[in-house]
Amino acid sequence: MNPRNPFPHAPSIGRRQFLRGALAALALPPLETWSAASAPTGARNFVAVGTFLGWHQNAFFPKQTGAGYAMPETLSPLEPHRDAFTVFSGLDHRAANGHAAWSNYLSGVTPNSYSLDQRIADELGQNSRFPSIELTAGSGELPHPMSFTRRGVGLPMIQRPSVLYRRLFVSKSDMARTDYLLRSGRSGLDLLKDDAKRLQAAVSNRDKDRLEEYFESFRAVEKRMERQLNALHEPLPETEYQLPTYDPITPNLQIEAETILYHLMALALETESTRVLTLQLDGLGQVFSLDGRTLGAGYHGLSHHGNDPRMIRDLVTIETAHIHCFAGFLQALKEKKSVRGKTLLEETVVLLGTGTGDASRHSNANLPTLVAGGGFQHGRHIAIDPKQPDAPLLGDLYVTVMQRLGMEVDKFSNASRNLNQIFS
Amino acid sequence: MNRPFCSAWAGLAFVSLGALEAADTQPVPEPIRGMLARHCLDCHDASEKKGDVNLDHETVDWADPAQRDVWIRAFDAVERGLMPPPKKPQPSDSERGAALAYWEQALLKHVKIGGSAPRRLNQREYLSTVRSLFEWPGFVLPVGFPGDGESHGFDTVSDGLPISPAHFEAYRSVALEIADELFPPKKQGAQSQRWEAGPRDMVLSFSAASVWEDALRLVSKSATAFRSCTWPSRIEVKDSGVYRITVDASQFNTPAGRPFSVPMLLEVRARDLTASDRTNVNTFRLLKTIEVRSDAPEHTVFEAELYEGQTVLFRWANAEMNHDAPELADVYRRWFEEDKRFLAAWQKAIFPTGTLRPELTRLRGLNGWEVVRKHWENPGLDLSQATMEAEPTQKILELANSLSGTTSFADALCHFYHERGPAMEVHRLSLEGPLRPAESPRDSLRAKLRQHWVGERQAGESMEAAVNGILRRVLPRAFRRPVSAETIRDYQGLVERHLEAGHSFEEAMHLLVRNVLVSPRFLYHGVEEGSEHLLANRLAYFLTQSPPDERLSGLAAEGRLLKRGELQKEAVRLMPKSHHAAFVQSFVGQWLDTQRLATIMPDPRFKFEDDKIATARKETEMFFTEMLVRNLPMTDFIDPDFTFSTPEFLRAVYGIQAPTGGGSRPDKAMTRIPMERGGRFGGLLGQSAILMATANGVDTQPVIRGVWVLENILGTPPPPPPKNVPALTPDTRGSKSPRELLAAHTKDAACAVCHQRIDPLGLALENYDPVGHWREQWPGAGLAIDPGCVLPDGTVIRGPVDLKAWLVAHIDQFSQCVAEKLLTYGTGRPLNFAEKREVRDLVKRNHEAGNGFRDLLLALVESETFRTP
Questions:
Q1: Do B841 and B797 lie in a common domain?
Q2: Which residues in chain A are closer than 8 Å to B15, comparing Cβ atoms?
Q3: What is the DSSP letter of B768?
């Protein structure tokens, strides 16, 4: 395996040429205008990756604790990055069980509530071109949202690499249309305002108050339009990265889609287009062919392995393929430097986990979790005994993550402590 | 263009003047003060101030809303006989009557009917309004469209419907999406392309397909795409048009697999690549059915239309294998009858030790087939139980006749077919085009939407006149009321300036759509006062959740809606006729909280799957509709002689045997079921949906059910619990009975005030478990449930049947509650004192006139409360 190739598991045709494109220098330096003051720790970005069907615990959790543990099977592609991440066992949110509560992953004890990434984006992302970007790979039916706004609205996820690409690297014709829409939209605002004034005159004083909300929202949106219009005329990032001619959106192309999305995620961070990214890895009935072998059942079927060793073997093969792609992402973040002279990995807290502890039993306890980058002291397996009366919660780790990113917070969902001591 | 956007807004701030009234301070008349001193002030003076109520005043300023609120509470408590408490000495009837009469006239002097604040369309109304405006029933909101808050129990009340920047952004982006649909930006010309796909370029989903050398095999004809079909994973047509499709396919047969003697039928369908894989195959358009007769690949070339975003999908339409019940059981039955070894092998796989395998999921996919095959090929396989009559055989067939067979071991049987045939083999697909353009359904829809918006342009008509015509037609519909000449002129100016700047007519219309859909006149209800149009809108959104139709707008324009009786006539016309009606879904879901059912996951021990939840919800909705349509007496809400359910549900949940009706699945058909009055089930309080909505799927909490009954059946919600009191959560699994735990509530005087009203109502319903089954014991401890209790008015009841009888005897209180809920939902405001008095009179009159539910609703529509903005 070529150690220089950050995406060793790329499965299909023509991948080599995308890789060349991805590694080529960018035409323009990242834009300082998008950068906000960085946290004193130097960590400034946040990435969360989550699988819908969990991670098979026995192949994810190391057998030994502390440093120098034997790399478990699923994590084997991460061996070269051993010092760049920490594995956690025994953490969860004490949330309800079942697929329906899956979104406890980033939401905490209450599924479908304000998620970690959105909390971070609301605080750190407001000066970025995109406060946050939500992605998914491998979805074959209704999406399972992973990110939720403060009001508990599940955010739609981008599944097509081509859509993400167009957002990040706006083409000339897209730009002209956006410019037209913003300018013409503005011409209508005066009219709306005049008409709204007439409306105000026709209603009672008490009702005027109520309508004032409309104007407040209106003004906020206007400001946003103005920002967008100004931003359009700033130089935008460019890349030579080439997408395939099709979008790998059928679920059985999940690994291929993941590979491409990780490329684009690294580019998004490098060009400072955003500071917060999430990638959801869905799973349904798709049957994978991996390592030259067609697996014995669909991904979802395998996750209900009922402890059958052959089904577990195939499930772990899929999960190892996910980790291969993830290792490529860490490698890319290690190789890319920010304008501040640090590697992107040092500047990015990367969380990999799930809201499903054990899909075979639909249990959401003991969630496999891993944290990479962010300038933390890594290299260990931290095993937590959830039966201890004061056992830490996954939310405690999230508090540490947020503090690392410079946020002044001491609570997340049902957690009100932190795990700072582990990294010091 | 550096002009800051916002400068134009400077100075456009609106100052709230509030509704300040001059003080109206009156001394409390001596007889009233005397009554208060004798019966109330022991607890409700300035020092005791129980329940935060102080009635010890020499004067009252009736113009002050805060002071009025205290007296309204006092009035309600005295009128309902809750105060003074039953155990305390009571005032005489004349004392009571005099106090109530005095308070009523003082309150009515200042509290006037009316006062709905402007409010935006809620999410449901917004959706139906867009659909109606554009005549576009298929329009759906984008994922992530912001929802609404609830206020006073409904999503129609102004307080719960603020507009936030997030809403505004969402309105803008929907407006853009719609404008793009009507007047799409120019697209580049289509370029012809050619794709090739072999067996390895196709989707393998569950056990639908498998790859063998140069062929991909299909074996099932299940109607669910992901169980039977395959499609190329890297082909997605970008331009709608006619394509040349080439397919190589053959039969695969072996002697072990009952070879096929008739042609195999390979369906080629068009699927949207992004459609859910769970989609029913028949919703994908059939392009061609190919007859495959030979074991050697046959070459078929044909042309068919494919539209933007589509790819082709293959299904073997006359396969023997079918995942779907009951056909799956037939497939097993045929094999079992034919091959004893095969039967024995499946028995062994599903009953490995004589009992049912606890983890059937291990039998999924190829893995499952390998388990079965191992037994099948084992020469020592025990055939002694391999008869059709054996219990395991019957159990397998029973499972195969349910969803559990489809999802667990049917896939294993697929692999038998994959291996031994018969199977359909697909070898190659090629796709070339577009050979020529074709109009997709989306293109036709766009043309229709555009036509609907733009209308017919008269020959020789100037652009100015044409635009004016469009605005005169479109704006009143969008704004749901007549539009002033000034407003028309403004929009005309917008369109014309855009045209003068060199943009096309389509672009100008695009801009118009974008603007109209974010105007406050589109987004808000009733912002202008007192017109018939407001009344037309109110009635239409109340009963249909949609804008007024042509007839209703017409009547409003003619000024006829203000005439007595006219509104009622229209209400009769718009009244829902089935439980699918938006009004039933929305009002019942919110009033009785049955919309909560979508989020409740009953504990597996209740064996209450999704289909039961759906049946429960339908029962309540159909029951409500029947009450309305047949104008049944209000008492039937509580103790009716019918319900709606399926025989299966009645048996499993209510323990009632009902005759099965007709149809293809008689056990699952909803029918009207006659019932004895005065029983455990029947009526709102015995309906599964409501008992489920008032629990959490796992256990019951009497306090929650008690509060719910007070709020939604009696209309007298208790005040929120004091902040400094820790919640008392009875552990119904523990050794103490909930009754003992709840007793703590009534020991503490501060808690007792409310809990002596709440707890009995909840305890009376404890015989119903969290999904509505009847139970005699509390789970866990095994203690017998004692549902008996004393109601706040002193009535002793022995359980839910007595509770129902009490409610029937006090039916006006329930009617008042329902009437207030209906009016709150319909007017977007909680009712004030004056409005509740009006409702009280209507309820009384309706009771005297037969007490029909529909009559009550019609009386409410004619009420001042409904007609006043």
A1: no
A2: 208
A3: B
Dihedral (C-alpha) B128, B129, B131, B133: value to the nearest 10 degrees?
A: 160
* DSSP letter, residue B652: I
Is the residue at B599 inside a domain? yes
Asked if A129 and A228 count as a contact pair (C-beta separation under 8 A), the reply is no
Q: Which residues pair with A274 in a beta bridge?
A: A130
Cα distance between residue B738 and residue B731, in whole Å: 7
Residues of chain A found within 8 Å of residue B200, distances taken between Cβ atoms: 289
Q: Give a yes or no: residue B158 inside a domain.
A: no
Residues B412 and B433 in one domain: no
User: Which pLDDT does position A291 carry in this prediction?
Assistant: 85
Tell whether pTM > 0.90.
no
Are B280 and B224 within 8 A, CB to CB? yes
Helix axes B702-712, B749-763, angle to 10 degrees: 90
Count of CB atoms situated within 10 Å of the CB of B23: 9
pLDDT score recorded for residue A10 = 40
Q: Rounded to whole angstroms, how far apart are CA atoms B859 and B867?
A: 11
Alpha carbon distance B683, B632 (integer Å) = 13
**Would you call A143 and B143 a contact, using CB atoms and an 8 Å cutoff?**
yes
The three-class DSSP label of residue B770 is coil
Q: For chain B, which ranges sit under pLDDT 50?
A: 1-19, 729-735
- Quick one: B350 and B394 in the same domain? yes
- Closest Cα of chain A to B364: distance in Å? 6
> Tokens 């079942």 map to which residue?
A98
Overall number of domains in chain B: 6
Count other Cβ atoms within 10 Å, centred on residue B118: 26
Tell me the C-alpha distance between B730 and B721, whole Å. 16
Distance CA B138, CA B121 (A): 19
In a domain, B565, yes or no: no
Run of H or E including A300: helix A299-303
Q: Are residues B376 and B480 in the same domain?
A: no
Answer whether the bond into residue B422 is a cis peptide, omega within 30°.
Answer: yes
Residue B529, pLDDT score: 56
Residues in chain A where the model's pLDDT stays below 70: 1-41, 206
Quick one: B310 and B380 in the same domain? Answer: no
At CA B680, angle to CA B676 and CA B684, rounded to 5? 90
Separation of alpha carbons B210 and B224, rounded Å: 17
The Cα B75–Cα B56 span in angstroms is 15
What are the C-alpha distances in Å from B257 to residues A211, B250, B342?
Answer: 73, 16, 12
Indicate the length of chain B as a whole number: 869
Across the interface, whether the CB atoms of A246 and B236 are under 8 A apart is answered yes
Comparing CA positions, the residue from A359, A311, A308, A284 lying closest to residue B358 is A308
Residues B276 and B397 in one domain: no
Taking CA–CA distances from A111, the nearest residue in chain B reads B599
**Residues B726 and B837 grouped into a single domain:** no
| SS3 assignment for B573-593 | HHCCCCCCCHHHHHHHHHHCC
Both B414 and B459 in one domain: the answer is: no
Of B509, B524, B539, the residue at which a domain comes to its end is B524
Asked whether residue B541 is domain-assigned, the answer is: no
Q: What one-character-per-residue DSSP string does B811-839 give?
A: HHHHHHHHHHHHHHHHHSS---HHHHHHH
Q: Of A331, A348, A342, whose CA–CA distance to A268 is shortest? A: A348
Residues 6+ apart with CB under 8 A from A146: A48, A50, A103, A105, A106, A115, A134, A136, A157, A278, A280
Written as six digits, the tokens of B462 are 């100037």
Give just the sign of the alpha carbon dihedral B460, B464, B465, B468: positive
Asked if A250 and B231 come within 8 Å (Cβ–Cβ), the reply is yes
Q: How far is CA B409 from the centre of its chain?
A: 33
Of B5, B227, B527, the CB nearest to A223: B5
What backbone phi and psi angles, to 5 degrees, belong to A86? Answer: -125, 135
Q: Which domain holds residue B90?
A: 25-110
